[in-house]
TrEMBL record:
Name used for this protein in its record: Glycerophosphoryl diester phosphodiesterase
Alphabetically ordered keywords of this record: Signal
GO biological process, one term: lipid metabolic process
Pfam families xrefs: GDPD
The species this protein was found in: Thalassobacillus cyri
PROSITE patterns: GP_PDE
GO molecular function: phosphoric diester hydrolase activity
Residue ranges annotated for the GP-PDE domain, each copy included: 13-254
Length: 254
């Protein structure tokens, strides 16, 4: 790029590995988080839910059926039951030793090594999960923004507000699925009261939405990139971070 157009290319865009580097290793496992770090992603995203016995577990679906060799709802299984499951073979036999991690295990291993974007997944199924996540972050000294790059987000905006009231110094984001009506200024005004990030589906994104989010003093990390074209588009329109299954598709740095 010529000197006149260098600014956009030089902007630091956060490369965020979705459920870890889930294009290359089974989602939401230590192998996927390790791969994200190896690939030099700035952060990885994970989904947190709660076991029957109140432990914070890292898994996307509300059942274990798709990503393990077991069956049943996360909320009806104990941690011990979930720990006995194979969380890697569905992706490839090479990952047969992977198990469902707890949030504590992930923080123990990756605190100081990677930013972590924590999604509270289906929190209405797990009363009290906001306090438990806050307690786990506090136990790991991750309750102050200067300590590490930690962001908490959810599609459930009440849950985001609840978390924010408990740990106001940890940045939070609202997730938004595709809505043909777009995102109104009224919505942005209400998000701004507590949120630092507005993270819509990439299908909602254009340069003007990003500008409006910035005008309301928030940042945006759209999701989920699975091809190079979308990565290039989001870099071009000025996303602040990009949530991707393939961290190597999203590296604007020379
Ligand atoms: O981080 C955003 C993205 O993870 C939201 O969708 O279904 O992959 O949790 P989902
Ligand atoms: Ca997620």
């Amino acid at each position: 790029a010529s000197e006149g157009t260098a600014t956009k290319a030089q902007k630091q865009v956060l490369n965020i590995a979705h459920r870890g580097a889930s294009g290359y290793a089974p989602e939401n496992t230590m192998a996927a988080f390790e791969k994200a770090v190896e690939m030099k992603a700035d952060m990885f995203e994970l989904d947190v839910q709660m076991s029957k016995d109140g432990e914070l577990v890292v898994i996307h679906d509300t059942t274990v059926d798709r990503t393990t060799d077991g069956t049943g709802s996360v909320k009806d299984l104990t941690l011990e039951e979930m720990k006995s499951l194979d969380a890697g073979s569905w992706f490839s036999e090479a990952f047969a030793d992977e198990t469902i991690p707890t949030l504590g295990e992930v923080l123990d291993e990756y605190k100081g090594k990677s930013g972590i974007l924590i999604e509270l997944k289906a929190p209405s199924l797990y009363p009290g999960i906001e306090q438990k996540v806050a307690d786990e972050l506090t136990a790991h000294h991750l309750d102050k923004p200067e300590n590490e790059k930690i962001i908490v987000q959810s599609f459930d905006h009440e849950s985001v507000q609840k978390f924010h009231d408990i740990l106001p110094e940890v940045p939070v984001g609202v997730l938004l699925g595709y809505n043909p009506e777009g995102i109104s200024d009224e919505q942005l005004e209400s998000f701004k009261k507590y949120a630092d990030y507005v993270n819509p589906s990439k299908s909602m994104i254009d340069a003007s939405l990003i500008e409006r989010i910035h005008d309301f003093n928030m940042l945006t990390h759209p999701w989920t990139v699975r091809d190079r074209e979308s990565a290039n588009f989001l870099l071009e329109v000025g996303a602040d971070g990009i949530i991707t299954d393939y961290p190597d598709y999203v590296d604007p740095r020379p």
